[in-house]
């Protein structure tokens, strides 16, 4: 099981590697509220499975890597 802090760190890493300079850019791409996305990236709120899948697709990493740290992570 992963900790909220570790998950938040992977979300942050994946966002940066995918070329989104700010959390707000990612939120726009994901069509979600900026604050909701930021709360996930800093580990303040839990991430639902459907949101995790959306992040994996948008950031081009595997769902498994985001969830556990094992699998296809960011390329850069």
TrEMBL record:
InterPro entries named among the record's database cross-references: Lambda_DNA-bd_dom_sf (IPR010982)
Q: Which GO terms describe its molecular function?
A: DNA binding
**Could you name the domain of life of the organism this protein comes from?**
Bacteria
Q: What is this protein called?
A: Helix-turn-helix domain-containing protein
Q: To which species is this protein native? A: Lichenifustis flavocetrariae
């Amino acid at each position: 099981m992963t900790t909220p802090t570790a998950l938040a760190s992977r979300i942050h890493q994946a966002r940066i590697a995918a070329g989104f300079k700010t959390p707000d850019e990612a939120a726009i791409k994901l069509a979600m509220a900026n604050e909701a996305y930021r709360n996930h990236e800093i580990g303040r709120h839990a991430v639902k499975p459907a949101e995790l899948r959306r992040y994996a697709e948008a950031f081009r990493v595997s769902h498994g890597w985001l969830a556990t740290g094992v699998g296809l992570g960011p390329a850069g």
